Amino acid sequence: MSPLRSSTWWDDPGKAGFIARHHMRQLGLTRDQLRGKPVVGICNSWSELTPCNAHLRTLAESVRRGITAAGGLALEFPTMSIGEPLMRPTSMMFRNLMSMDVEETIRANPLDAVVLLGGCDKTLPAQLMGAASVDLPAIALSGGPMLTGRFRGKTVGSGTDIWKMSEDLRAKRITQDDFDEFEGCLARSAGHCMTMGTASTMGCLTEALGLSLPAAAALPAADARRAQLAEQSGARAVELAREGLRPSDILTRQAFTNAVVVNAAIGGSTNAVLHLLAIAGRVGVPLALDDIDEIGRRVPLLADLMPSGRFLMEDFAYAGGLPALMAELGDLVDLTAPTVTGRTLGENLAGHQVWDREVIRPLDNPVQSADNGTAVLRGNLAPGGAVLKQSAASPELLHHRGPALVFDSIEEYLRAADDPDLAVDADTVLVVRNLGPRGYPGMPELGNLPLPAKLLAQGVTDMVRISDARMSGTAYGTVVLHVAPEAAAGGPLALVRTGDTVELDVAARTLHLDVDPGELLARRTAWTPPPRPPQSERGWARLYVDRVLQADKGVDLDFLVGRSGDQPGKAPF
Ligand code: FES
Ligand code: MG
Questions:
Q1: Dihydroxy-acid/6-phosphogluconate dehydratase N-terminal domain spans which residues (predicted)?
Q2: Atom 3 of ligand 1 has which residue's CA nearest to it?
Q3: Which CATH number fits domain 374-530: 3.40.190.10, 1.10.3110.10, 3.50.30.80, 3.40.50.1100?
């Protein structure tokens, strides 16, 4: 075994070693604790501003127990946290900032390995991005999903049922009192959203990538087995430090292929596309937007989970969770992929089976057949690509031609949405722009635009919507998202006008603006870039807007792509 990285701090014979050691004595540590023990950081995104992660403080105690029992020294540290429900203008604007915090904190300190504790949508991706760039041995564990929501005898799911019930409220099918009661029933335990939204998706993909222990994705936050997983993750991190198994050994092309396959089989969030591209970019594995479509296309939807299906994460866990689903996928996943357990994915999956065939369906009787996952569209309206989640869309709209109704901002659209005289019908293609990474800024989850009240009153439940925004992983509808380049970056989305004909053909993977190329050129010549969004003149927002990459590149900052390694630089003393 090569010397521990942390020994560079502790074993320094001069002033730097003294300073490092004597301040550790403040923690009540004896000098023996600093001799020859792998130091495992517990990278904790606990915060009461991230209610989904609030229990990670307790979970960290289980991780600590595992590290100590395995002969390591546990040092817990906080990083920035990102809470979906509270952060404005949008949580996505801060993912890269958190990834920088994680990366720099890990690199700058005497750590030999790290346990990443995340949960809410952006937290695990940010941690994986940061850890991939440092490439220090790492294992991830999510806080786990909430228990199933129950409202008046019915199962209700995070996000998904909010979108449904708020439409019901707008259409006056339910009262405000009903809605208020529902509010208290939905998030009734610790944990992250328990639909297959972005948090659950990223938990599953982290496991599929091989970076967390088997079964880590689905077990509820409230289940004692999650605390046991935390203890095991801590113990495993100590071994990782000794073995020197690094994220780059695990995050191979095979791992990303497996993650894309799993994303299709679970009906995962469209946000996962951005996160996978960004993580691959950090570790230097070639993964292109089109790979998401090509690899995912041969995979049927097996998990019958909201928003694409009926059940919730708790049901998924009891049905066998992700190991059972991956075992069911058989040769569709690459079983030779290395994982954080030190074993291959195939070895990890041995003995796992499905216990509930309603929740995890067999390959020969899937929820939806192959080629119903996230489609990547291209055309003169999205030369850099766009995505559409087929399993959450209306089949009859997947090939659609209609007149565009265009809005330059979400505010402009929301003001018009309730107008009973709005010139809109079910064939209209709703276009809202300037919702991209630079334009909003931060690419908010607004792509599943609420339907105009006029159409709701007519009983219309879906229409084609196009934007450069994202959509919550818990949302649904025939919505074209992540249009690249975005309008604010001069993408053709900026050139569409109300009345232009737009054609969406998902089977052909095209998104076409039926306007003469000469006319488009004239519009482009007349186009001027919008000014920087308000509040983006200084600080993080300024850096973000100036350096953020487009959706087809994972919305990372251009200078964060790639690895930097674990060398901390010189001691200051
Ligand atoms: Fe945190 Fe949904 S709000 S996971
Ligand atoms: Mg979400």
A1: 37-348
A2: 84
A3: 3.50.30.80
